């Protein structure tokens, strides 16, 4: 297993929940604010009050408004933006594999794919691309010569970008994954 790197404190990290729920290996470094786990994102509900019945990833106290903003632990925000770095990774110049991996990331996250555009920079080189989502986007930039990839996974509403991490692990086989979380559009 690769090196584990502890990232700085980022409000809203969910390492404990994610590691338990998805059985992630210990070489996944995640930003984590406190020892208190944060529940997964809730499913959208048609009102701005807490859902009376829980289902899927909904947790008590989660509120999703009509505009797909989320309320969790008294914080209202648009969505979760993960900055993901893959180190000592493989398959970073494989356009077809990357396309399949992005599509699977969208599916497992519960997002809606609008369009994928990938650009390969030539033999032995990396690629850049984006999956445009109704809920925001996933972008990827790779450097095969360094075994490095940088990804952004930004999703609003009930879509959960954390669910894409195991897909990235299978596709690119990194020695280390670093993840930092940012809540976007924080209102309160």
Detailed description of the structure:
It is a single chain. By secondary structure, this protein is an alpha+beta fold. It is built from three helices and ten strands. It has a domain at 70-184: S-adenosylmethionine decarboxylase. Helix content is 16%, strand content 32%. The strands form two sheets. A seven-stranded mixed beta sheet has the order 1-10-5-9-8-7-6, with helices on one face. A three-stranded antiparallel beta sheet has the order 2-3-4, with no helix packed on it. Helix 2 (95-109) packs antiparallel against helix 3. It is elongated and about 50 Å long.
| Largest sheet strand order | 1-10-5-9-8-7-6
Distance between the termini: 40 Å
Elements, N to C (H/E): HEEEEEHEEEEHE
Dominant shape = elongated
Strand content: 25-35%
If helices are DSSP runs of H or I spanning 4 or more residues, what is the number of helices?
A: 3
Gyration radius (Cα, Å) is 16 Å
> Helices and strands: which structural class?
alpha+beta
The low-confidence runs, each spanning 5 or more residues with pLDDT under 50, are 1-27, 31-56
CATH architecture of the domain at 70-184: 4-Layer Sandwich
- Using the coordinates above, name the CATH class of the domain at 70-184: Alpha Beta
- Average pLDDT metric: 77
The main β sheet shows up as: 7 strands, mixed
* CATH homologous superfamily placement of the domain at 70-184: S-adenosylmethionine decarboxylase
Helicity level, as a percent range?
A: 10-25%
CATH topology of the domain at 70-184: S-adenosylmethionine decarboxylase
Number of strands: 10
């Amino acid at each position: 297993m690769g090196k584990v790197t502890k990232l700085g404190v980022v409000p809203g990290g969910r390492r404990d929940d994610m590691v338990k729920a998805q059985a992630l290996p210990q070489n996944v470094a995640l930003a984590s604010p406190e020892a208190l786990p944060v529940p997964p994102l809730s499913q959208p509900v048609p009102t701005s009050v807490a859902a009376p019945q829980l289902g899927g990833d909904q947790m008590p106290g989660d509120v999703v408004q009509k505009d797909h903003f989320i309320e969790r632990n008294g914080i209202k925000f648009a969505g979760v933006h993960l900055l993901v770095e893959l180190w000592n990774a493989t398959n970073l110049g494989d356009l077809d594999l990357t396309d399949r991996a992005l599509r699977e990331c969208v599916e497992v996250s519960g997002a809606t794919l609008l369009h994928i555009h990938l650009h390969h920079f030539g033999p032995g080189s990396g690629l850049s691309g984006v999956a445009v989502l109704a809920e925001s986007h996933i972008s990827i930039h790779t450097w095969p010569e360094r075994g490095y990839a940088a990804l952004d996974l930004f999703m609003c509403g009930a879509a959960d970008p954390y669910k894409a991490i195991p897909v990235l692990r299978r596709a690119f086989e990194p020695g280390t994954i670093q993840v930092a979380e940012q809540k976007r559009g924080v209102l309160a």
